[in-house]
């Protein structure tokens, strides 16, 4: 069975989307997925995730230090089956960049996973508690996403 290709997207690809990628990889043992993350901005291309994202992931037994920041590329729209934006601003940017045939792949992360039309807040200007809160949101959403994928037979 061909794995479902999932791309998580935030602004800089150093806080939310790499954390979501790490969480989904960690949780999806038997689910055939190929997961990646990217940013709509290019400020952190090649950088490690934010040290606070690394720390919160590590506290939960997840290592995201192998990831590097990258910017969404035109080829991602064709290559991915599902592109989940962390907030409405990044979703709007993705909709502006995506070709017409890829529009149906684009969704707000919490809207798609939990049915809640709410942003995952950017914790960049927060302390450890902000990163922990984001971790909990992402973890809950990723668990729900795995359930949806398993229910659909993917």
Structural notes for this entry:
The chain is α/β, with parallel strands linked by helices and 154 residues long. It is 44% helix and 14% strand. The model has no long low-confidence stretch (mean pLDDT 95).
> Compute the gyration radius: what is it?
14 Å
- Could you give the count of β-strands? 4
How far do the termini sit from each other?
Answer: 8 Å
The shape, in one word, is globular
Per CATH, the class reads: Alpha Beta
User: What are the low-pLDDT stretches, counting only 5+ consecutive residues below 50?
Assistant: none
**CATH level-3 fold name:** Rossmann fold
- Helical content class: 40-55%
Q: What's the CATH architecture?
A: 3-Layer(aba) Sandwich
**CATH homologous superfamily descriptor:** Response regulator
Helices and strands in order:
Elements: E1 4-10, H1 16-27, E2 33-39, H2 51-59, H3 74-79, E3 82-85, H4 88-97, E4 106-108, H5 109-114, H6 128-152
Parallel strand pairs: 1-2, 1-3, 3-4
What would the keywords be for this entry?
single chain; 154 residues; alpha/beta; Rossmann fold; 4-stranded parallel β-sheet; 6 helices; 44% helix; globular
Give a brief rundown of this model.
With 154 residues, the chain is an alpha/beta fold. It is built from six helices and four strands; from the N terminus they run βαβααβαβαα.
